[in-house]
Hints:
CATH topology of the largest domain: Endonuclease III, domain 1
Number of strands: 7
Cofactor: [4Fe-4S] cluster
Enzyme class: hydrolase
Shape: elongated
Protein name: Adenine DNA glycosylase
Family: Belongs to the Nth/MutY family.
Catalytic activity: Hydrolyzes free adenine bases from 7,8-dihydro-8-oxoguanine:adenine mismatched double-stranded DNA, leaving an apurinic site
Amino acid sequence: xxxxxxxxxxxxxxxxxxxxxxxxxxxxxxxxxxxxxxxxxxxxxxxxxxxxxxxxxxxxxxxxxxxxxxxxxxxxxxxxxxxxxxxxxxxxxxxxxxxxxxxxxxxxxxxxxxxxxxxxxxxxxxxxxxxxxxxxxxxxxxxxxxxxxxxxxxxxxxxxxxxxxxxxxxxxxxxxxxxxxxxxxxxxxxxxxxxxxxxxxxxxxxxxxxxxxxxxxxxxxxxxxxxxxxxxxxxxxxxxxxxxxxxxxxxxxxxxxxxxxxxxxxxxxxxxxxxxxxxxxxxxxxxxxxxxxxxxxxxxxxxxxxxxxxxxxxxxxxxxxxxxxxxxxxxxxxxxxxxxxxxxxx
Length: 346
């Protein structure tokens, strides 16, 4: 089909030089695909290079300590990806003797691998004829073919996968999948694409009917929850600090943080001081409390907006289980806390 040939021709001339495109190694392709879920290539690339340097093989990753994996992942977000990555590496190394499943259906059984990731690995590593359907693909196909199906609806994935399956060349599925994703990332971008230079503009129905800005249709809105985190940075007589591991399910599972007082809304200094004294005042005498950030820090996650404050609390004597700054920075932290540490405590 002209659509597929034009797309592939564009890709061969315009594709970015990325390390995971120079290999059919399923380990490297799996790593890159997990890292690039909801992450831009520019942000994910340094992490890919760090992981492949630190863990050259699936066995190296499997044998790593989880905290080492989370520390390397620090700042990439969606930390469940890192935990699933580590669990899957251990499974492949021990149960599959280091050999990845070599089919779409087999790859789907791996923890943290959904249809899109399984299709990417199956086509890029094993040349299996299976289309990838991600946000870029939804956008390119909905615009070119003027598809008004809500991409958040239950049947959208099936509809777009069927269409992509008709378009994918059976003799070279990998290059088509790479091409359509790259086209969506570089040319058919979400906002204000340059349709004047687009190689598909003569057949694009969205352009013909002046609907480029309206497609793809996505009606479902993400519900965002506001949370208010007040972190207590204790400092004892020798400036040692307290951190804790977030063992509860939810955001930042198994990462580290300072002692936390979460409130239902914003609180003033007098209120937080009272909460700190009520909760911690019976352990070591509190000498002083002072805010460490001039204005509230807003940290946005996909379904939550976190309003974060840090308070330095100096206490009398020595704190039990306190550690030095040098020891503390070796632990994996959520990036909002790590950035604060580097800026205010270094």
